[in-house]
Design goal:
28% strand; 9 helices; 371 residues; 21% helix; six-stranded mixed sheet; Rossmann fold
Length: 371
Amino acid sequence: MTNVNDLRCSGCGVAIQTESPEKLGYAPAAALNKDPLLCQRCFRIKNYNEISSVTPNQDDFLKILSGIGGKEALVVHIVDLFDFEGSLIAGLHRFVGQNPVLLVVNKVDLLPKAINVNRILNWVQKQAKDHGVRTSEVVLCSAKKNIGFDRVVEAIARHRGKKDVYVVGATNVGKSTLINRLIRDYSDLEAELTTSPFPGTTLDLVQIPLDDGRDIIDTPGIVYTHRLTELVNKRDLQTVLPDKPIKPSVFQLNEEQSLFFGAMVRFDFVQGARQSFTCYVSNAMPIHRTKLERADELYEEHKGVMLAPPSKENLDNLPPLVKHSFRIRKGAQSDVLISGLGWIAVNSDAGAQIVIHAPKGVKVAVRDSLI
């Protein structure tokens, strides 16, 4: 594979090559004179919303991140509020050393309206501390809806001084969308990064020159396979990933009742007094209620059809479901998080015994209630 004069894709940053269409960075020779220059993968995403299966591995991502600790930089860590625990980079301090970290919490627009912003901010600060992420500041925003973006820019200006800015985050947290906003407002660079709803869009370091001679460096998203969004068929992402404010679904359940979220996740209320469970998932995700005694039979008979996504032809691509048992103590206000799908709020006066069936490897946990 030959690189062409060290040309790089202006969308994802990968080195351009013209010999192997099945490998990263391929562009036909006829495209080399185009401005902006895009690899075939980015061209298809941008113009046809077409998905490519060509992606780098996680080791490549970690090698890139490992160089940040030796630089003098501001690190902007972008996380997804819809999947906070799933998108947080564990052990970030090992990569960034003593560099300050600005935690930018994206996608606040997905929360239901009339949410207390100060409560959300306090919740994020506590969760970050509990997970060992040391931050200089936390900023809530929605890059897509331009909510709080001015505060992000002001925070970057306060903390970076004359440093470069490294932007890090997992896939699908809205990193490229936010950087595109920075490009339009604070850089002479006209070509935007490729912004796509599919994981792994940014494939190498992309340096964006600032007016003061420093750079914003966009790093590739880390692929965390504990997130459901990394395991489902890419065609199902539009169902799993919310794109509008979530409309909570409230279910009054008796013990020994179950909820199916498509055929991806099952929630069993095993024991406890009749109570409500509030589901915070994409509005497009179908939820089906049944009796616990019928749940196994229903799944086997209707998975991939009535219980979908995934569709029947894509079921084999999803790992088998495994059980996670939890006891919610009396009087607790808790969320049961299923990384990449959302969460189920359990505000129980009497306590509850629940079981979550989720694809093997998907992160499932109980946390303090977000809302």
